Automatic annotation (TrEMBL):
This is PRD domain-containing protein. SUPFAM superfamilies: PTS-regulatory domain, PRD, SacY-like RNA-binding domain. Gene3D superfamilies: CAT RNA-binding domain, PRD domain. Residues 65-170, 171-282 form the PRD domain. Transmembrane segments: none annotated.
Length: 284
């Protein structure tokens, strides 16, 4: 790949063998380099494909106004978070996170602390991403000598969550956090019980709910029905759980404007039944 523009030591614009332009991120990737030099492949950490002129303009505008030190901080945060979470983020993360960190540090210098209204939901439902975001605060503190609040860790965590959403809207994870909390409230109210949120059983239930919501958001037209006999057997066996799930379905249909399939009802029933049985056994 040939370098066609150098933004700073960590970011360059390149052209590959097919004459496609890409943004490359990496430690020292632009250091001592010149336009038309061949890029050292050993320095590449991330490659952002600029499929459209709009995407290219967004990248170039962001790099024009971002300080080189904030770019480097963002690069380190992304590299560490991908390692911590065992994922590869999509192309949208770098610009969004760079913009957020720049703004957060600017607000900090003005003593303007932004409260995160969903901080508790983020801690609860996106535990791994939040822990990775706390490590991000450590990186920022080491590089910029300021300690940002847990509220900022919550915002950063949602960038990590969004970075794992292939092509989905940025607001979806925020909506999901609220929806899962509402589902829990319906379960607690229906069964008149409290749920221990520190257990592995609870964490597993949250993972299943996140999977269900991803399916509802992204699977269109292929959410197949199941065998009526199996569905009817489970409904008869767990009648109280079925009544609870029907309440949840009404809520989801109104909140997300979707129709919940029998397969998804069955999925909800099995996992809610598993969760509530455990809570009942502990209470007894």
């Amino acid at each position: 790949m040939k370098i066609i523009r150098i933004f700073n030591n960590s970011v360059v614009l390149v052209q590959d063998a097919n004459h496609e332009e890409k943004m490359v991120l990496g430690k020292g990737v632009g250091f001592n380099s010149k336009v038309n030099d061949l890029l050292d492949p050993n320095k590449i950490e991330k490659v952002f494909v600029l499929e459209t002129s709009t995407k290219k303009q967004v990248f170039e505008k962001a790099m024009k106004f971002a300080s080189a030190e904030y770019v480097e901080v963002t690069r380190k945060i992304i590299a560490q978070a991908e390692d911590d979470l065992g994922v590869t983020f999509n192309d949208s993360v770098f610009i969004g996170l760079l913009d957020h960190i720049s703004y957060a540090l600017q607000r900090f210098s003005q003593n303007d602390n932004l409260k995160n209204a969903l901080i508790w939901e983020i801690k609860k439902f996106y535990t791994k991403e939040f822990q990775a975001a706390l490590t991000s605060l450590d990186i920022i503190e080491k590089e910029e000598h300021v300690r940002l609040s847990e509220d900022e860790a919550g915002f950063i965590a949602m960038h990590f969550v969004n970075g794992q959403q292939n092509g989905s809207g940025e607001k979806t994870p925020m909506i999901d956090a609220v929806v899962i909390q509402d589902i829990l409230n319906i379960i607690k109210f229906h069964f008149k019980m409290e749920i221990d949120e520190t257990t592995f059983s609870f964490s597993r239930f949250i993972i299943h709910m996140r999977y269900l919501l991803q399916r509802i958001h992204h699977v269109h037209g292929t959410r197949n029905a199941i065998e009526n006999e199996l569905f009817e057997q489970v409904c008869k066996k767990y009648t109280d759980t079925y009544r609870c799930v029907k309440k949840i379905c009404v809520y989801l249909e109104n909140k997300l404007n979707v129709a919940i399939t029998d397969e998804e009802i069955l999925y909800l029933m099995l996992h809610i039944n598993r969760l509530t049985l455990r809570e009942k056994s502990i209470a007894e």
